[in-house]
Amino acid sequence: MPDFAWKAARADGQVSEGRIEAPSQAQAMRLLRGQGLTPIRVTEGGAAGAQALAPQPAAEAAPKPTPFWQRTAGHGGAATGADVLLLTTELSIMLKAGLALDTALRVLIGMSHKPAVASITQTVLDDVKGGVSLSKALNRHRDLFGDFYINMVRSGEASGQLSAVFERLVEHMERLRALRESVVSATIYPAILLGVAVLSLVAMLGFVVPQFETLFRDMGDALPAPTLFVMHLGQAFTHYGWAMAIGAVVVWLWARQWLRSPGGKIWWQNTALRLPVLGSLLHKYDLTLFARSLGTLLGNGVPLLGALHIATETVGNGKLRLALASVAPKVKDGGKLVDALSATGIFEPLAINLVRVGEETGRTGPMLLELAHIFNRDVETGIKRALTMLEPLLILVLGLLIAAIIVSILLGILSVNDLAS
Asked: Across residues 152-174, what is the average pLDDT?
């Protein structure tokens, strides 16, 4: 008979673990429920003849690997977006298993390894036990959860489908995280190549070129122009290298601080959209966020005007956000969503046609999610194509720079030989 490892919550909110023999996973869950336990996880595995139904406190269970969410979220500091995702995932599992909301929150407090998350969950639990709705309790932490999250929970409370709402939230947040991680991961290799290029130039100018200085010292202006240029560059780097490094750091810190300012953000956002390849990718990335957020909200019963306001705020680019801000007033005045989106001038014909089909068939939410899927695929494809061009370009530039230094040194050596002969 198969052996199942289980993790379940007791009526008092404590989490227990153990092993059970049952013909199937469904039968194992029924046996656990029959003992007053609410299954959180039941997985097949282990040797036969394992311990039976008696619940065991989690503290007495055999040591087990640290869960992925504990490794990634961290154990200290302030709560982050990753913590919200992991909290939502655990809450979704427990509500789907039939656990009461207050019991599920107590379980989350006991499972949390981050004091900030435990504190926030405790305040939410206290508010819920005091008769406050979950959405209002979360509203006290609006900076962490955001309007999108809170409105989704509010719609789930109104429809009585809170468990389904948390499942959709998890899916939505996972997709956004996957999109962001794909963008970040795509920049790692080019960043490594750029770092190698800088280190290579530093090594050539700081250590290789000065070795030839004594050889060329007596030739003066008789050296070829490329050799003279590289020699002067090497001398400047040798004598003022630290000053150059400090100046570069100061410029970088200043630029980063300025780009974080309102004026700097506007300049960069407007400039980035005009770049040949990057501009198109950033444009579609922001529209992906808008379409996915709006589609998810509409599919969960949030009113269109409220959903438009919330979805617009998820767009990071100020220029695109300003264009999208004009959509809600036009819809409020009685206009169609497709006409309002078309008037912004930032959507391609495919997107407009999908929204039009959604409005005509009463499936605007699903059509927007399909549009987000198309945009997401285009962004990922565009990133791969851009990297396909960028990586060999960086290698080529690095090779040309190093080759230019070597050739200039060789020209100088040949000039010394000519004079000697």
From this structure: 81
